[in-house]
Write a structure and sequence with these properties.
Length: about 140
């Protein structure tokens, strides 16, 4: 797993801009035989959010992903999701796990092991990355 400091800062900034509500988007980059290279995030043009929930609309994101895939000749792709937990833990919720299960089964996504990055926003910022595999979310480190 590789995540640049600049990308981590970008996600933290976006999360804190929408504090005290949850906020999020998608993760894009490269998936290789030895891990993931997170390159960027994209945020939706439309969403619904509260301090305990974030629901994104997929319209603009699907268009972005199609263009990204075409321009990079299939190298850059959808890797997963990210969202914030304002003043909350970076532990995933049951809804987070259900969402990742659904995403892993979606034929159009073509990613059976999507990532989930949860960022704590507010006075202190922390984060945790997870990967969906074997029907559950597993914590990751930047070294995996």
């Amino acid at each position: 797993m590789f995540v640049s400091d600049a990308l981590q800062s970008k996600i933290e900034r976006l999360a804190n801009q929408h504090y005290p509500c949850e906020y999020g988007g998608i993760l894009t980059g490269l998936k290789t035989s030895i891990g993931w290279l997170l390159m960027d995030v994209e945020v939706p043009h439309a969403w619904q959010a509260s301090p305990t929930q974030f629901t994104r609309q997929v319209g603009s994101l699907n268009s972005y992903l199609s263009q990204l895939y075409a321009i990079s000749e299939g190298q850059l792709q959808y890797l997963g999701e990210w969202h914030s937990h304002p003043d909350g833990p970076t532990r995933y919720s049951q809804q987070d796990a259900r969402s990742m299960a659904e995403i892993s089964l979606e034929a159009g996504v073509k990613n059976v092991t999507p990532l989930l990055w949860i960022v704590r926003s507010g006075n202190t910022t922390s984060h945790q990355l997870y990967v969906w595999r074997q029907d559950k979310l597993h914590p990751l480190t930047h070294h995996e």
